[in-house]
């Protein structure tokens, strides 16, 4: 059976994906940039627009990291504004389960679902470090092993809050004087991480629950995805790795009584389109070189080596000194958290085998665009990737803000539509509908007063 | 009488401030949780050239008593997050200030600051913040992190008593506002340099850790969000007693007060001045705008507004009173009152429509033209941020090097 391809777009916000030195590059924070990108995605009948989250500016060698685009909005506040600039496009946000409380997050997500008419998604991340914790009351006490237990209970609690109102609890009957059904919003959750009770303020939202997204690769992360997520983001966008990840995660679903169709796997990807394959390849190289500047190449190397390498020539060979695996020079970034000694060994071998300079090596291991070519080449490659079960779709991070999606939507999307693998128009209004996900039935309240017959 | 322009704000809450307002003939109670309902109201307020709208909010459902929840089903219960609501409305409006209420007792100061900075970016300089403490102990159980004082019926008879019981929460709220202000300053205006020669997008010398350490929390910074267009979004708080006056004097740009008449307004403003002195604020440098709150029921025909309020009172089963004075009358009478009270030294008013949209429409289509006829209110918005409209000077960044 031909699979339908799910498409999402992201304004990267940080990371060296964004080529800020391009003269066409505009503000990463101005509302106009977000509106442009969201409306382009909607024109391409994308499933959703996505925002990642980082709650502390990254630091490198003890100082703020200066090389990449940084400076981003509060996700849900921005997406709420964008929901007024679009009518069908889903709006999905990363919201951390460590540095927030369920009542507030559940309320904000329910609000966004009301304001957007049922287009909300939530990427539940757990990334934890004491470094980020320094911006919060809670601080950084949560042990790494507790990340997913808190996240799972956080999500379960949020679901109890969303279910605390039934559809139709708002009667608003002026004649009888009944505004609300008795007991609406009552909840009580007594658990290991959260012990809360009272009344939830926000009536049941159009989707009931937002679409739940997960983005983590550890074993507990994959289990969380299999038990609870409806979309998984991954970084595996090479077909062989992607198929292994896809098989693994989809294979875990049965344990939770779910079928592979209950979960969409969407790697992050980049696209470079030009008139011909040759032009696209040349342009992709140009982009990659801009993404991995000489300074960025050294910084990436330092992140793995754990020491200052500013004396080294980016166009020269790798340092002959060994990494310091104990010292973490890059903070606020989940990359290079672990396995750095092994990474360094692999890099050294690759550089020696191919005779690569520092920058060439960094371009080799970090750079590179996922889909490169003429519109036909790109459309075929995307379709092949999905049909051979590497993914159910992609989240596109664009190298240019905000115009980086224009070519894809104008030139590739029509070809996907011609192939019959992408919708010619929206057929529903909710994100759940776009993704082909079943509505989530409301769990009956376990607490609260007996309900009045209505 | 002063020549400075009169400022007018409107406070939006549910179907209006009267608890039975949702049962009025033109109410849309079934639409309270839809964006269209709020978009229509704010468009109406913008049509009336009002300075700003505030959005009420709390981290628990509404209740008839201010200090504890109730089980009433005959009044509006349920609400949307005010920051997200304001942000959604930002792209549906162009001039009016958007000031959401934000609970600062149970939220993370960092999230508050970043949310309002974002609202300022999406509205291109029209954001405000109305910090509010959680006075209800029950709301604390929604978070489970701490407890807050349970006020007794005796406590709530007198604003001074309430405030005294809640003093530590006001002290903490002062720190939240301070942290928000520092985070808004933590990016200098020109921190983004895009310097291709050195490969640097940012200049780290123009980004600042705020290193806030207080008895309630600490925050390191800098913000993740670049400096908002206004530099400092407008902070406005409602105050009824000495402790909240002091809170306003320390950290706010606008204070909403609740006099009963002109003499009362004078007395309250004297107390506000005293608080300003006490905290050592130089208002020539950092002006504090003073608005009086007033609940309004407006009809053209004399007596009609009072009769309408009586009908709503009967539906609710109690006479509606409020922390603010309740006005019933004609738009002309209200114009007289506003211009009279203003001579006590008020900069403006925050009017709370008794019933929506009726009393809002009466404000924008009757009161405003009446004030314009008397040359007491603007005829166009003109350009500029909310700060500028309120006559607040462009803020200096505390971290920027001068000279
Ligand atoms: C594609 C992708 C996107 C992610 N986006 C975010 C993000 O926006 N914010 C964040 O804090 N963590 C993000 N993460 C980090 C993960 O959510 C997760 O916390 C991290 O990978 C560690 O979890 P793990 O140990 O299960 O891999 C992302 C991870 C992946 C693979």
TrEMBL record, chain A:
By its UniProt entry, which SUPFAM superfamilies does this protein fall under?
Bacterial luciferase-like
Q: What is its EC number?
A: 1.14.14.10
Q: Name one GO molecular function term.
A: nitrilotriacetate monooxygenase activity
Keyword Flavoprotein applies:
yes
Q: What class of enzyme is it?
A: oxidoreductase
Q: Which positions carry the signal peptide feature in this UniProt record? A: none
InterPro entries from the xrefs? Answer: Diverse_substr_monoxygenases, Luciferase-like_dom, Luciferase-like_sf, NTA_MOA
Region listing for Disordered, in residue ranges: 424-454
* Domain Luciferase-like, residue spans: 27-391
Gene3D superfamilies, sorted: Luciferase-like domain (3.20.20.30)
Which keywords annotate this record? Flavoprotein, FMN, Monooxygenase, Oxidoreductase
UniProt key word Flavoprotein: yes
Recorded hits in NCBIfam families, A to Z, give: FMN_nitrolo
Q: Which protein family is named in the record?
A: Belongs to the NtaA/SnaA/DszA monooxygenase family.
Q: What is this protein called?
A: Nitrilotriacetate monooxygenase component A
- Organism the protein comes from: Streptomyces cyanogenus
UniProtKB/TrEMBL annotation, chain B:
UniProt keyword annotation of Membrane present: no
Enzyme Commission number, as recorded: 1.14.-.-
Q: Where is the Luciferase-like domain?
A: 27-308
Transmembrane regions: none
GO function term, MF aspect, one: monooxygenase activity
Please give the superkingdom of this protein's source.
Answer: Bacteria
Could you list this entry's UniProt keywords, alphabetically sorted: Flavoprotein, FMN, Monooxygenase, Oxidoreductase
Q: Is Ribosomal protein given among the entry's keywords?
A: no
Q: What class of enzyme is it?
A: oxidoreductase
Checking Gene3D superfamilies in the record gives:
Luciferase-like domain
What is stated as this protein's family in its record? Belongs to the NtaA/SnaA/DszA monooxygenase family.
- Name it: Monooxygenase MoxC
Instruction: State the taxonomy lineage.
Output: Bacteria, Bacillati, Actinomycetota, Actinomycetes, Kitasatosporales
Encoding gene (name): moxC1
């Amino acid at each position: 059976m031909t699979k339908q391809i799910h498409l999402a777009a992201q304004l990267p916000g940080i990371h060296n994906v964004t080529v800020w030195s391009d003269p066409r590059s505009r503000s990463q924070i101005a509302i106009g940039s977000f509106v442009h990108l969201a409306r382009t995605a909607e024109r391409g009948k994308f499933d959703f627009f996505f925002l990642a989250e980082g709650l502390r500016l990254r630091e490198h060698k003890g100082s703020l990291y200066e090389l990449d685009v940084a400076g981003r909005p509060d996700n849900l506040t921005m997406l709420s504004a964008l929901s007024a600039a679009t009518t069908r496009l889903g709006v999905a946000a990363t919201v951390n389960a460590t540095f927030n409380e369920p009542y507030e997050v559940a309320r904000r997500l329910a609000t966004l679902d009301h304001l957007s008419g049922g287009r909300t998604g939530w990427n539940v991340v757990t990334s934890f470090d004491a470094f980020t914790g320094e911006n919060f009351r809670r601080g950084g006490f949560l042990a790494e092993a507790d990340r997913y237990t808190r996240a799972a209970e956080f999500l379960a609690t949020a679901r109890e809050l969303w279910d605390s109102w039934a559809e139709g609890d708002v009667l608003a009957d002026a004649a009888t004087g009944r505004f609300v059904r008795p007991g609406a919003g009552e909840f009580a959750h007594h658990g290991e991480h959260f012990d809360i009770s009272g009344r939830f303020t926000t009536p049941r939202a159009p989707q009931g629950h937002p679409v739940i997204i997960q983005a983590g690769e550890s074993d507990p992360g994959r289990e969380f995805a299999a038990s609870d997520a409806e979309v998984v983001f991954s970084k595996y966008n090479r077909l062989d790795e992607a198929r292994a990840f896809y098989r693994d995660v989809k294979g875990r679903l049965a344990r939770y009584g779910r079928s592979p169709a209950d979960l969409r796997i969407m790697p992050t990807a980049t696209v470079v389109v030009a008139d011909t394959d040759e032009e696209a390849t040349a342009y992709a190289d140009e982009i990659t070189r801009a993404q991995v500047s000489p300074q960025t190449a050294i910084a990436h190397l330092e992140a793995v080596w754990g020491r200052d390498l500013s004396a080294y020539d980016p166009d020269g060979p790798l340092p002959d000194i060994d990494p310091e695996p104990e010292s973490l020079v890059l903070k606020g970034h989940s990359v290079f958290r672990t396995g750095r000694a092994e990474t360094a060994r692999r890099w050294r071998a690759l550089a020696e085998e191919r005779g690569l300079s520092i920058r060439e090596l960094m371009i080799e291991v970090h750079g590179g665009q996922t889909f490169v070519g003429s519109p036909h080449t790109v459309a075929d490659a995307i379709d092949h990737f999905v049909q051979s079960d590497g993914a159910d779709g992609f989240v596109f991070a664009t190298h240019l803000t905000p115009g980086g999606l224009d070519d894809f939507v104008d030139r590739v999307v029509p070809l996907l539509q011609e192939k019959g693998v992408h919708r010619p128009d929206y057929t529903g209004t909710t994100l759940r509908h776009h993704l082909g996900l079943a509505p989530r039935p409301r769990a009956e309240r376990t607490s609260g007063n007996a309900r009045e017959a209505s | 009488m002063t020549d400075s322009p009169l400022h007018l704000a409107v406070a939006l809450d549910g179907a209006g401030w009267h608890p039975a307002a949702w049962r009025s003939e033109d109410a849309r109670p079934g639409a309270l949780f839809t964006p269209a309902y709020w978009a229509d109201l704010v468009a109406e307020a913008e049509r009336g050239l009002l300075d700003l709208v505030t959005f009420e909010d709390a981290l628990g459902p509404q209740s008839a008593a201010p200090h504890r929840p109730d089980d009433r089903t005959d009044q509006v219960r349920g609400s949307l997050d005010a920051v997200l609501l304001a942000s959604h409305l930002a792209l549906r409006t162009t001039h009016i200030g958007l000031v959401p209420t934000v609970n600062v007792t149970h939220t993370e100061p960092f999230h508050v600051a970043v949310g309002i900075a974002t609202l300022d970016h999406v509205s291109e300089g029209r954001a405000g913040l109305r910090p509010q403490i959680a006075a209800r102990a029950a709301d604390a159980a929604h978070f489970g992190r701490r407890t807050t004082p349970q006020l007794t019926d005796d406590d709530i008879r007198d604003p001074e008593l309430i405030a005294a019981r809640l003093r530590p929460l006001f002290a903490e709220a002062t720190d939240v506002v301070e942290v928000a202000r520092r985070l808004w300053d933590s990016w200098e205006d020109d921190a983004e340099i895009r310097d291709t020669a050195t490969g640097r997008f940012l200049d780290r010398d123009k980004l600042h850790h705020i290193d806030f350490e207080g008895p309630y929390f600490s925050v390191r910074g800098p913000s993740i969000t670049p400096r908002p267009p206004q530099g400092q979004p407008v902070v406005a708080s409602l105050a009824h007693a000495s402790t909240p006056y002091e809170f306003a004097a320390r950290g706010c740009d606008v204070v909403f007060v609740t006099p009963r008449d002109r003499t009362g307004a004078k007395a309250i403003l004297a107390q506000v001045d005293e608080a300003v002195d006490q905290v050592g604020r130089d208002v020539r440098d950092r002006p504090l705008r003073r608005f009086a709150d007033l609940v309004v029921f407006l009809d053209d025909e004399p007596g009609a507004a009072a009769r309408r309020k009586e009908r709503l009172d009967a539906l609710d089963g109690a006479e509606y009173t409020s922390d603010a004075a309740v006005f019933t009358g004609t738009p002309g009478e209200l114009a007289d009152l506003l211009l009279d009270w203003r001579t006590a030294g008020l900069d403006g008013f925050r009017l709370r429509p008794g019933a929506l949209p009726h009393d809002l429409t009466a404000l924008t289509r009757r009161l405003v033209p009446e004030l314009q006829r008397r040359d007491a209110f603007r005829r166009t918005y003109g350009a500029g941020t909310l700060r500028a409209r309120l006559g607040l000077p462009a803020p200096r960044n505390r971290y920027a090097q001068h000279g």
